[in-house]
Every structure is written in C-alpha cells, then in structure tokens.
Amino acid sequence: MVQYLIYMVILMAIPMWAQSRVRRNYAKYSEVPNSTGLSGAQVARKILDDNGLYDVTIEEVSGTLTDHYDPSRKVVRLSSGIYHGDSIAGTAVAAHEVGHAIQDATNYSPLRIRHALVPLANLGSSLSYILIFAGFLLQIFNLALIGVIFFAFAVLFQLVTLPVEFNASSRARDQIVSLGIVKREEERQAGKVLNAAALTYVAAALVAFMELLRFILILFANRDNN
C-alpha cells in the first residue's frame, strides 16, 4: 500500500513539475519584449510567408497557452496574449506553432503518424481504463488484455508526439534566428521557453509509459496467480 502511494505521488509530481516550469518560464519571458517589436501574430505571418505558406491563416483564441496548429483547417491559433503581445515568450510560442504548419506542408512523417494514431489514441484514452478494471474485477484476462492494448495505443501516441514537438521547436529556433526576429541573447531566452514546453510532453510520455508498464505487470501477475 505504501509503495502504491509513493508511486501515485511520483506519477502526479512529474507532470506538475513540468507544468510549473512552463508557467514560470512563460510568465518570466512574457514580461521581456523582443527587440523587433513584432507581435506573435506578425511573427507567425512572417515565418509562414517566408516558407511560402500563404494559405495558412492565423486566428486569435481565448485562454492562456491554448495555442495550436489545426492541420484540417490550415490555421495557426494563438492565444490573445501571444497574438497581440511582442514578448520573447510570445515569439517562441508563435514560431513553435508555425513549426507544425511547416511540418504539415513538408509531410513530416512523425506528424503524419501522429495524425493516423489519433482515433486509436482517443479510443484508448476513453475505453482502456474501463476495460482494464472490468477485466481485473471480473477476472477476465482477455478483457483486461484488450484494455491494455488500447492503452498502449495512447502511450504510442504520446511517444510519437515527442519527435513532433521537439522538431517543431527546432524549426522555430532556426526560423526566428535566420529571419532576424530575435538576437543572440533573445535566442537563449526563447530557447528556455521552448525547452520548458518540451518537458511537458516528455513528462506526459513518461507517466503514460509508467502506467502501461504497471498494468502489464499486474495483468500477467494476476494470470499467473490464477
């Protein structure tokens, strides 16, 4: 029981730590203006146009850190603070989302794989726990096994997300430097924002993998006991 509690504390602490780093770096560099005075929307538009992505539009969305790229509509959506602001943090986040648009335009294979995994990942997220616990409760090995397989698809999605996000950040840094959007010191600051954001995906993948391993161990331990 004590070991399980320790495990659950670790499981919760990992993503909380990663999120705290993101928010701390975002808050810090949201107060630091970039030297060009460009807003996040202008940064995104400049990078998109430089890469010939004139058909990709930019929209403002509500919330904080709700920024994302929608491949189905070819839209980069930026939260209000980033859309209008001219901070280093806003520059980094806007460039990162455009990085996904560039991946989409160049048929970056991990992005395509992630898109293909979305239905299976959604199914795994919604059904896996139900099937696993029902299988354990009713002592039906195959039912629990199906649940674990569904959960594995969700974990695979998290793992494939890692190269997608790291590559988007790498593209973002290359673009903001090559286009002269940031200077040398600003590049380091933007990098801190991007690195902190990447940690959240690493944390999510690590937690998901730990849970998958735990379910597998419990599943086969129960089978051996029966």
Automatic annotation (TrEMBL):
Pfam families: Zn_peptidase_2
Chain ranges passing through the membrane: 116-137, 143-164, 193-221
Keyword Transmembrane in record: yes
Swiss-Prot/TrEMBL keywords: Hydrolase, Membrane, Protease, Transmembrane, Transmembrane helix
GO molecular function: peptidase activity
Domain of life: Bacteria
One GO BP: proteolysis
InterPro entries: Zn_peptidase_2 (IPR007395)
Protein name, entry field: Zn-dependent protease
Organism: Terrilactibacillus tamarindi
